[in-house]
Model the fold of this input.
Amino acid sequence: MIADRSSVTAAVAETIARPSFPVPTMDMGRDERPSELASPVLLFDHVSKWYGPVIGVNDVTLELRPGIMGLVGANGAGKTTLMRLATGQLRTDLGTVEVRGISTLKAAAKRYVGWCPDADVFYEEMSGRQFVRVMAQLCGFDRREAKRRADEVIELVGMNDAMGGGAERTLRGYSKGMRQRIKLAQALVQDPELLILDEPLSGIDPVGRQESIALFHQLARRGKCLLVSSHELEALEKLTDQVIVMARGRIAAVGTLPRIREMFDDVPLAIRIDCSEKRRLSAALLELDDVSGIELGEQATLTVRAANPKRFFKKFAEVVLEEGFDVQHLEILDDSARAILGYLLAGTAHS
Amino acid sequence: MSAELLHYRPWRGTFHGPLSASWPIARVALKMMFRRKLFWAIYALALLMFLMFFFGQYLLSWAESQADESGVRIFGAKVAPGDLIHGLREVLQLNGRKGEMYALFFRFQGYMVMVLLALAGSMIVGNDFQYGTLPYYLSKPISRVHYLLGKCLAVAVFINLMTTLPAIVLWVQFGLLDTWSFFYQKADLLLGIIGYGLVLTVSLSALLLAAAVWVRRTVPLIMAWCTLLFFCRVLADALVFVLNMDWRWRLIDLWDCTYIVGTWLLQADPGPRQPAIGWAASILVIVSIVCTMYLILRVRAVEVVK
Done:
């Protein structure tokens, strides 16, 4: 067992900064070339970035391949710096950042990247459609193609006037949700392979949120790589179970939420069990080495604290089958992104 | 929303280079300015100045063509009509054959340009920094240089719309009123006009962009701009003409520096106690380089940790 949370954080970061988890296999879409499949879409190689005496990103090594990856961390953890490095807006002080093998500072790399920033202030006198067209022209498309693409992505994000979207209205009159959609449209206009989204679900109504999540899933299925930063962890969990957790400029953990949770040996997992014979079950579970404590709740509920979830669940299944317990409900209480983030941040604060 | 709606076909065409992105950036800036009524009010004033020169030239040429050989009596003295009109041309500086007229025109228009640019600066550039619009540009396949070029292009359009373009119209008008030989005999004047416009464009756009990036908001920008171009002029005049200090003190007046270089290009007389062209040109070059370096540094530091 690892002694404290700080060492857990270090161990997690060390072992999985270059992720070994299986990368989701995606249908790569129609114009992907085989050579592109081999290389990661986004590669950070020992990247550090300072702002004077403040370190923004500290020795980050990371590979992203097609799929959706969440990016979480407290304010000032380095998420925005990481995203700006990935979009070529900031220069690294150490290390390299590459998109499809090209340095992100080069214009050629930016063709692969769509960026949806958190800021939603544009030129307020322009209509949404005009804004997206200008952004398309900046990507190098001629006017006709820029118009065609702008029309398509505006329809895609549900901003078409026929759909009551208001793309012809000036941006001044846009709600937060409409601004989010237009930002997404300008990011998609060049059909990027890497889509970097900063708080893309903030301010969107529940229906729009569902639509956006469905859209992100579809884009991922088309072979796109999405890096989604969000403080709305519940929404992020619906979007992906693969997350990068950042703390103090470092990558504290990368991987699926359950896998990251497993690494916290010193933080027992809280499991709620509903069983008609809760006292007898409690007695049986206390015999197990991994169980550090049991709380008896109301009616048939008990909360078990187990140190090694994988081993515990194996033993638990054996106990239930042997003794014939009637387990009505089983729920892990603290493997949510919020709980994991809390543990990680507490660990880094301690270190 | 459904990604199935996307009908992107693989792009078979040729991507325009990042340099071509400068024009859409400039166009956005121009559109924003053209929507302002204040812009049109200032532009109308500038146009009024142009029309004074335009119809002044026309009136003198018309009077020249109407005058017969008999003399005209002024205060009892008989004056030949040709001499009278020639005198008027010199006094009013409405002689399209001389660089002085174009230099004077540039000088008058310059005041309007200064006011207009003070208003335009925060709108064209300052807002990008203040509201965080810059990342949208920089995330597209263009570099900081192309962004700055686009903004400079917008400033250049404003400057030349009020100075170089009307000056060229005056040159063409004088040629049409005069003889055809004017166009090739005085082609150097045309080059001088274009050169003067270029000097204004380069120095003022670099200065404006740097000032706008520095102060960002409209009112502080107007104050900074007024300090740079109006206050420095008053100070320079006071130092040289009132306190009789060294004439090089006039170099702190950047607008005067552009005027000196412009008059040299137009082969006109810059006036008394002016610094040499070399000094003025050096100051403009140094200011432009410093402003450009500052701009590149500021644009590079898109995000600043506070």
